[in-house]
Fold each of these.
Amino acid sequence: MAVAQARSFTAAAARLGMSRANVTKQISALERQLGVQLLNRNTQHVAPTKAGLLLDKGTCELCWNLGDAVIRRRSVLACW
Protein backbone atom coordinates (compact mmCIF):
# COMPACT_ATOMS: atom_id res chain seq x y z
CA MET A 1 0.00 0.00 0.00
CA ALA A 2 1.49 3.27 -1.10
CA VAL A 3 -0.06 5.18 1.81
CA ALA A 4 1.44 2.86 4.42
CA GLN A 5 4.85 3.05 2.78
CA ALA A 6 4.78 6.83 2.31
CA ARG A 7 3.10 7.44 5.70
CA SER A 8 1.14 10.16 3.94
CA PHE A 9 -1.94 10.32 1.75
CA THR A 10 -0.53 13.33 -0.09
CA ALA A 11 2.83 11.66 -0.83
CA ALA A 12 1.12 8.43 -1.88
CA ALA A 13 -1.24 10.33 -4.18
CA ALA A 14 1.69 12.10 -5.85
CA ARG A 15 3.51 8.79 -6.30
CA LEU A 16 0.42 7.17 -7.82
CA GLY A 17 -0.51 10.18 -9.96
CA MET A 18 -3.89 10.48 -8.25
CA SER A 19 -5.62 13.11 -6.16
CA ARG A 20 -5.36 12.81 -2.39
CA ALA A 21 -9.16 12.67 -2.20
CA ASN A 22 -9.26 9.72 -4.60
CA VAL A 23 -6.61 7.82 -2.61
CA THR A 24 -8.57 8.47 0.59
CA LYS A 25 -11.77 7.17 -1.02
CA GLN A 26 -9.98 4.06 -2.33
CA ILE A 27 -8.53 3.23 1.10
CA SER A 28 -11.87 3.83 2.82
CA ALA A 29 -13.65 1.59 0.32
CA LEU A 30 -11.07 -1.17 0.80
CA GLU A 31 -11.42 -0.92 4.58
CA ARG A 32 -15.20 -1.21 4.26
CA GLN A 33 -14.93 -4.22 1.95
CA LEU A 34 -12.47 -6.00 4.24
CA GLY A 35 -14.24 -4.95 7.43
CA VAL A 36 -10.99 -3.83 9.09
CA GLN A 37 -9.13 -0.58 9.63
CA LEU A 38 -5.90 -0.65 7.62
CA LEU A 39 -4.45 2.69 8.70
CA ASN A 40 -4.30 4.66 11.92
CA ARG A 41 -4.74 8.30 10.94
CA ASN A 42 -4.68 11.65 12.62
CA THR A 43 -3.98 15.13 11.34
CA GLN A 44 -0.21 14.63 11.52
CA HIS A 45 0.50 10.93 11.03
CA VAL A 46 -0.58 7.89 9.05
CA ALA A 47 0.60 4.46 10.15
CA PRO A 48 -0.52 0.97 9.20
CA THR A 49 -2.48 -1.12 11.68
CA LYS A 50 -1.59 -4.79 12.20
CA ALA A 51 -4.18 -5.64 9.55
CA GLY A 52 -2.60 -3.07 7.22
CA LEU A 53 0.85 -4.57 7.74
CA LEU A 54 -0.47 -8.07 7.03
CA LEU A 55 -2.22 -6.89 3.86
CA ASP A 56 0.93 -5.09 2.70
CA LYS A 57 3.08 -8.19 3.36
CA GLY A 58 0.58 -10.43 1.59
CA THR A 59 0.37 -8.07 -1.36
CA CYS A 60 4.16 -8.01 -1.71
CA GLU A 61 4.30 -11.81 -1.62
CA LEU A 62 1.54 -12.00 -4.22
CA CYS A 63 3.45 -9.62 -6.51
CA TRP A 64 6.68 -11.63 -6.14
CA ASN A 65 4.82 -14.87 -6.90
CA LEU A 66 3.19 -13.30 -9.93
CA GLY A 67 6.57 -12.04 -11.14
CA ASP A 68 8.06 -15.53 -10.74
CA ALA A 69 5.16 -17.03 -12.69
CA VAL A 70 5.69 -14.55 -15.53
CA ILE A 71 9.41 -15.37 -15.67
CA ARG A 72 8.70 -19.13 -15.71
CA ARG A 73 6.11 -18.66 -18.47
CA ARG A 74 8.59 -16.71 -20.58
CA SER A 75 11.19 -19.44 -20.06
CA VAL A 76 8.77 -22.13 -21.17
CA LEU A 77 7.69 -20.13 -24.23
CA ALA A 78 11.31 -19.50 -25.18
CA CYS A 79 11.84 -23.26 -25.38
CA TRP A 80 9.11 -23.71 -27.97
Amino acid sequence: MDAPIDLDSYRSGPERTATRWRCRQAARDRMSCRVATWREQALQDMLLAVPAGTWSEAANRAGSLIERYAATPEGQVPQERELIVLVLADLVRLQEQAVVEV
Protein backbone atom coordinates (compact mmCIF):
# COMPACT_ATOMS: atom_id res chain seq x y z
CA MET A 1 0.00 0.00 0.00
CA ASP A 2 1.32 3.43 -0.92
CA ALA A 3 2.03 6.00 1.75
CA PRO A 4 -0.43 8.93 1.89
CA ILE A 5 0.72 12.15 0.26
CA ASP A 6 0.83 15.28 2.40
CA LEU A 7 -0.99 17.69 0.09
CA ASP A 8 -0.46 20.62 2.46
CA SER A 9 3.22 20.63 1.57
CA TYR A 10 2.19 21.57 -1.99
CA ARG A 11 -0.15 24.38 -0.94
CA SER A 12 0.67 28.00 -0.21
CA GLY A 13 -0.13 29.50 3.20
CA PRO A 14 -3.47 31.00 2.12
CA GLU A 15 -4.44 27.74 0.40
CA ARG A 16 -3.68 25.78 3.60
CA THR A 17 -5.77 28.25 5.60
CA ALA A 18 -8.67 27.94 3.14
CA THR A 19 -8.44 24.14 3.26
CA ARG A 20 -8.50 24.11 7.07
CA TRP A 21 -11.46 26.50 7.04
CA ARG A 22 -13.38 24.23 4.64
CA CYS A 23 -12.66 21.20 6.85
CA ARG A 24 -13.89 23.03 9.94
CA GLN A 25 -17.00 24.21 8.10
CA ALA A 26 -17.71 20.66 6.93
CA ALA A 27 -17.40 19.45 10.53
CA ARG A 28 -19.86 22.16 11.67
CA ASP A 29 -22.28 21.17 8.91
CA ARG A 30 -22.12 17.52 9.98
CA MET A 31 -22.78 18.52 13.59
CA SER A 32 -25.73 20.71 12.55
CA CYS A 33 -27.14 17.79 10.60
CA ARG A 34 -26.81 15.49 13.62
CA VAL A 35 -28.53 18.06 15.86
CA ALA A 36 -31.36 18.49 13.36
CA THR A 37 -31.80 14.71 13.15
CA TRP A 38 -31.84 14.48 16.94
CA ARG A 39 -34.46 17.25 17.16
CA GLU A 40 -36.65 15.58 14.55
CA GLN A 41 -36.42 12.29 16.45
CA ALA A 42 -37.26 14.02 19.74
CA LEU A 43 -40.28 15.69 18.13
CA GLN A 44 -41.44 12.41 16.63
CA ASP A 45 -41.07 10.63 19.98
CA MET A 46 -43.07 13.39 21.68
CA LEU A 47 -45.83 13.25 19.05
CA LEU A 48 -46.06 9.48 19.33
CA ALA A 49 -46.11 9.48 23.14
CA VAL A 50 -49.55 11.02 23.64
CA PRO A 51 -52.47 11.43 21.23
CA ALA A 52 -53.58 14.96 20.37
CA GLY A 53 -56.04 16.29 22.92
CA THR A 54 -57.53 19.08 20.82
CA TRP A 55 -58.09 19.98 17.19
CA SER A 56 -55.40 22.62 17.57
CA GLU A 57 -52.85 20.00 18.68
CA ALA A 58 -53.89 17.76 15.80
CA ALA A 59 -53.47 20.66 13.36
CA ASN A 60 -50.00 21.39 14.76
CA ARG A 61 -49.04 17.76 14.25
CA ALA A 62 -50.41 17.74 10.73
CA GLY A 63 -48.52 20.95 10.00
CA SER A 64 -45.29 19.37 11.26
CA LEU A 65 -45.77 16.38 8.99
CA ILE A 66 -46.57 18.59 6.01
CA GLU A 67 -43.44 20.69 6.64
CA ARG A 68 -41.33 17.50 6.78
CA TYR A 69 -42.84 16.43 3.47
CA ALA A 70 -42.15 19.90 2.04
CA ALA A 71 -38.43 19.38 2.77
CA THR A 72 -38.29 16.26 0.57
CA PRO A 73 -37.58 16.31 -3.17
CA GLU A 74 -41.21 15.38 -3.84
CA GLY A 75 -42.36 18.34 -1.76
CA GLN A 76 -40.30 20.68 -3.94
CA VAL A 77 -42.35 19.99 -7.09
CA PRO A 78 -44.10 23.29 -7.92
CA GLN A 79 -47.64 21.85 -7.83
CA GLU A 80 -46.94 20.10 -4.53
CA ARG A 81 -45.30 23.24 -3.13
CA GLU A 82 -48.39 25.30 -3.99
CA LEU A 83 -50.68 22.77 -2.31
CA ILE A 84 -48.45 22.65 0.79
CA VAL A 85 -48.54 26.44 1.14
CA LEU A 86 -52.34 26.49 0.79
CA VAL A 87 -52.91 23.68 3.30
CA LEU A 88 -50.55 25.21 5.88
CA ALA A 89 -52.32 28.57 5.45
CA ASP A 90 -55.69 26.81 5.97
CA LEU A 91 -54.42 25.19 9.18
CA VAL A 92 -53.23 28.55 10.54
CA ARG A 93 -56.48 30.28 9.57
CA LEU A 94 -58.65 27.57 11.13
CA GLN A 95 -56.59 27.56 14.32
CA GLU A 96 -56.96 31.35 14.60
CA GLN A 97 -60.71 31.07 14.07
CA ALA A 98 -60.92 28.38 16.75
CA VAL A 99 -59.11 30.64 19.23
CA VAL A 100 -61.48 33.55 18.50
CA GLU A 101 -64.56 31.32 18.93
CA VAL A 102 -63.42 30.03 22.34
Amino acid sequence: MAAYLTAQCDVLASNDVGMRTGTPAVHKTRVAARRLRSTLRIFGDVVAADPAEELDAELQWYADLLGAVRDRDVLSSRLTKQIAQPPAGPEFPENLTPAKPAILNSGVTPRGEVYLA
Protein backbone atom coordinates (compact mmCIF):
# COMPACT_ATOMS: atom_id res chain seq x y z
CA MET A 1 0.00 0.00 0.00
CA ALA A 2 2.81 2.43 0.86
CA ALA A 3 4.37 2.02 -2.59
CA TYR A 4 1.02 2.69 -4.27
CA LEU A 5 0.40 5.80 -2.15
CA THR A 6 3.91 7.00 -2.92
CA ALA A 7 3.37 6.46 -6.65
CA GLN A 8 0.15 8.52 -6.61
CA CYS A 9 1.85 11.28 -4.61
CA ASP A 10 4.65 11.30 -7.18
CA VAL A 11 2.07 11.70 -9.96
CA LEU A 12 0.49 14.62 -8.10
CA ALA A 13 3.83 16.33 -7.53
CA SER A 14 5.22 15.86 -11.03
CA ASN A 15 1.96 16.85 -12.70
CA ASP A 16 1.73 19.95 -10.53
CA VAL A 17 5.06 21.09 -11.92
CA GLY A 18 3.96 20.09 -15.40
CA MET A 19 0.70 22.02 -15.25
CA ARG A 20 2.56 25.12 -14.05
CA THR A 21 4.76 24.90 -17.13
CA GLY A 22 1.94 24.27 -19.60
CA THR A 23 1.86 20.48 -19.80
CA PRO A 24 -1.72 19.21 -20.15
CA ALA A 25 -1.85 16.95 -17.08
CA VAL A 26 -5.15 17.91 -15.46
CA HIS A 27 -6.89 14.60 -16.13
CA LYS A 28 -4.01 12.45 -14.87
CA THR A 29 -3.73 14.61 -11.76
CA ARG A 30 -7.44 14.24 -11.01
CA VAL A 31 -7.12 10.46 -11.42
CA ALA A 32 -4.20 10.36 -8.98
CA ALA A 33 -6.18 12.39 -6.42
CA ARG A 34 -9.16 10.01 -6.75
CA ARG A 35 -6.90 6.99 -6.38
CA LEU A 36 -5.32 8.44 -3.25
CA ARG A 37 -8.71 9.21 -1.72
CA SER A 38 -10.01 5.72 -2.54
CA THR A 39 -6.94 4.05 -1.10
CA LEU A 40 -7.21 6.03 2.12
CA ARG A 41 -10.85 4.99 2.49
CA ILE A 42 -10.27 1.34 1.61
CA PHE A 43 -7.35 1.02 4.00
CA GLY A 44 -8.89 3.22 6.70
CA ASP A 45 -8.07 0.59 9.33
CA VAL A 46 -4.36 0.92 8.58
CA VAL A 47 -3.94 4.70 8.49
CA ALA A 48 -4.50 7.21 11.28
CA ALA A 49 -8.02 8.61 11.00
CA ASP A 50 -7.42 12.33 11.64
CA PRO A 51 -4.56 12.87 9.17
CA ALA A 52 -6.36 10.71 6.59
CA GLU A 53 -9.52 12.82 6.92
CA GLU A 54 -7.54 16.04 6.56
CA LEU A 55 -5.76 14.71 3.48
CA ASP A 56 -9.06 13.48 2.04
CA ALA A 57 -10.56 16.95 2.44
CA GLU A 58 -7.56 18.56 0.74
CA LEU A 59 -7.62 16.05 -2.09
CA GLN A 60 -11.36 16.64 -2.56
CA TRP A 61 -10.76 20.39 -2.76
CA TYR A 62 -7.94 19.87 -5.26
CA ALA A 63 -10.00 17.47 -7.38
CA ASP A 64 -12.91 19.94 -7.44
CA LEU A 65 -10.58 22.72 -8.52
CA LEU A 66 -9.07 20.56 -11.25
CA GLY A 67 -12.57 19.48 -12.29
CA ALA A 68 -13.46 23.05 -13.17
CA VAL A 69 -10.26 23.37 -15.20
CA ARG A 70 -10.91 20.06 -16.94
CA ASP A 71 -14.49 21.09 -17.78
CA ARG A 72 -13.20 24.28 -19.38
CA ASP A 73 -10.55 22.36 -21.33
CA VAL A 74 -13.15 19.93 -22.68
CA LEU A 75 -15.57 22.75 -23.56
CA SER A 76 -12.82 24.71 -25.27
CA SER A 77 -11.76 21.69 -27.29
CA ARG A 78 -15.32 20.91 -28.39
CA LEU A 79 -16.09 24.51 -29.31
CA THR A 80 -12.82 24.90 -31.18
CA LYS A 81 -13.74 21.87 -33.31
CA GLN A 82 -17.25 23.19 -33.92
CA ILE A 83 -16.02 26.65 -34.84
CA ALA A 84 -13.42 25.21 -37.21
CA GLN A 85 -16.11 23.22 -39.05
CA PRO A 86 -19.37 25.21 -39.19
CA PRO A 87 -22.38 23.24 -40.38
CA ALA A 88 -23.42 23.70 -44.00
CA GLY A 89 -26.74 25.21 -44.87
CA PRO A 90 -28.55 28.44 -45.67
CA GLU A 91 -28.27 29.73 -42.09
CA PHE A 92 -24.46 29.75 -42.49
CA PRO A 93 -23.67 31.73 -45.63
CA GLU A 94 -20.32 31.20 -47.28
CA ASN A 95 -19.18 34.77 -46.51
CA LEU A 96 -19.11 34.04 -42.76
CA THR A 97 -15.83 32.77 -41.43
CA PRO A 98 -15.37 30.96 -38.14
CA ALA A 99 -14.05 33.09 -35.29
CA LYS A 100 -10.52 32.34 -34.23
CA PRO A 101 -10.27 29.77 -31.41
CA ALA A 102 -8.48 32.43 -29.32
CA ILE A 103 -11.90 33.89 -28.57
CA LEU A 104 -12.45 30.87 -26.33
CA ASN A 105 -9.61 32.02 -24.09
CA SER A 106 -10.89 35.57 -23.84
CA GLY A 107 -12.59 34.97 -20.49
CA VAL A 108 -16.03 35.26 -22.05
CA THR A 109 -18.28 32.25 -21.53
CA PRO A 110 -19.25 30.87 -24.93
CA ARG A 111 -23.01 30.53 -25.38
CA GLY A 112 -22.98 29.00 -28.82
CA GLU A 113 -21.13 29.22 -32.06
CA VAL A 114 -19.39 32.51 -32.76
CA TYR A 115 -18.99 33.81 -36.31
CA LEU A 116 -17.49 36.95 -37.72
CA ALA A 117 -19.00 38.66 -40.76
